[in-house]
Design goal:
single chain; 15 strands; 393 residues; six-stranded parallel beta sheet; 37% helix; alpha/beta
């Protein structure tokens, strides 16, 4: 079986190289990919949907790389599955790539192709060349990981940054010296456009959420060392959901949103009516809008959710291990976190019940000034203007 798979892989790569030699690059073909093709979300989605609102999905031939062929796309974009013959053909001829994660190293970027790397978050955790160790599945060692990351980053022509803080880190951690687009994140534009009573109420109805209860969003990050295999990570927080339900369930429900690398299928039926969970295809930006407060840990969701100026709680049960062993932080998390940092479910419940926004007003203002100074609802517009400028050259 392994021999057959290797033969198929060899034939496909030969096909890809033939396409590169035979077919010209087409500037009207754009390839989009979010989260390794696992869903239709994030910055690439926001950029594409801005193009749809401007009617540009008719001017360009847009393709979204998606594993789930049942995903419904607006506009004229077509879906393409990963590693199929059409996938390689399109990478060979597309004049523009838009992705929020690294592409496989076997994908070759041609000289006339522009690659817009949108990335997927402002960093708290150390990245790439700044890391001292690597625990991720599929990685053989830190030096090899850094080499592969650096080589991959050299294929990017443009890199989107949410703030000046990120720009400085990205330059160093990715070894990136080309064009930095310091413009805020396109995926956050919706937080300006739909942050109103009517849109939020409609979203709650679509999600089947109660209209008369508070909504708590729990969105933790993934742990590098908790995995089943390459790109498949576990959901394993020691949070006591029964205790939470008993303490706040009378007037509150909870949305649990996994990181896109989490592969667990959790049975939430014991918490029916309290815990709501949605598949990976649902964009977290819309979950931000319907939630009254957020529980996270070290995830970059904190930098996006902060735009809404709503309460945040940080459930960091493995703080010392994560900070000192797994990744390391770029800034003093305890000093800057714009909300309570707790280690246990008991302390989390107390923090929620005793929360006073006045206690964190100054921290939240400083957090906003440092990390959200560019988010203004127009980031996708700026990317679309850049794409349009290519056709004018």
């Amino acid at each position: 079986m392994k021999i057959i798979k290797n033969c198929i892989k060899a034939v496909v790569l030969l096909w890809y190289r033939a396409c590169i030699r035979i077919f010209p690059v087409r500037q009207d073909v754009i390839l989009f990919e979010s989260n390794l093709g696992r869903n239709y979300t994030g910055n690439p989605r926001a950029i594409y949907e801005k193009m749809v609102r401007q009617g540009l999905d008719k001017k360009y031939r847009c393709y979204f790389i998606l594993e789930d062929r049942n995903t419904v796309l607006p506009g004229a974009a077509k879906k393409v599955k990963r590693t199929r013959l059409r996938y390689f053909f399109l990478f060979a001829v597309a004049g523009i790539w838009v992705s929020d994660s690294r592409l496989p190293m076997y994908i070759r970027k041609r000289p006339k192709c522009r690659y817009i790397q949108t990335w997927h978050g402002t960093p708290l955790k150390k990245l790439a060349l700044d890391m001292d160790t690597v625990f991720m599945a599929g990685e053989t060692g830190i030096e090899e990981y850094k080499k592969n990351f650096y080589n991959n980053a050299q294929t990017w022509d443009y890199l989107v940054s949410q703030n000046q803080y990120s720009t400085e880190i990205f330059r160093r951690a990715f070894g990136f010296q080309k064009t930095m687009l310091e413009i805020g994140y396109p995926r956050n534009d919706v937080l300006f456009r739909k942050n109103n009573v009517e849109d939020i109420r409609e979203l709650k109805k679509q999600l089947g959420l109660p209209l008369d209860k508070r909504i708590l969003l729990y969105a933790p990050t993934w742990r590098d060392n908790e995995f089943y295999g390459q790109g498949k990570y576990k959901f394993n927080p020691p949070m006591d959901f029964s205790r939470l339900q008993e303490a706040i369930g009378k007037d509150t429900v909870m949305i649990v949103k996994y990181h896109y690398l989490i592969m667990d299928q959790i049975d939430w039926s014991p918490y029916r009516g309290f815990v709501y969970s949605y598949d990976l295809s649902y964009d977290i930006s819309l979950l931000y809008l319907v939630s009254d407060f957020l529980i996270t840990d070290y995830s970059s969701v904190m930098f996006d959710y902060n735009i809404l100026k709503r309460p945040m709680f940080f459930y960091c049960y493995d703080l010392e291990k994560y900070k000192d062993t797994l990744r390391g932080f770029y800034f003093d998390f305890l000093a800057e976190a714009p909300g309570p940092v707790v280690l246990t479910t008991k302390d989390l419940i107390r923090a929620i019940k005793e929360y006073d926004p006045a206690d964190y007003g100054e921290r939240q203002e400083a957090f906003t000034k440092k990390y959200n100074h560019l988010d203004d609802g127009n980031a996708a517009k700026r990317i679309v203007e850049l794409i349009e400028s290519f056709s004018e050259e």
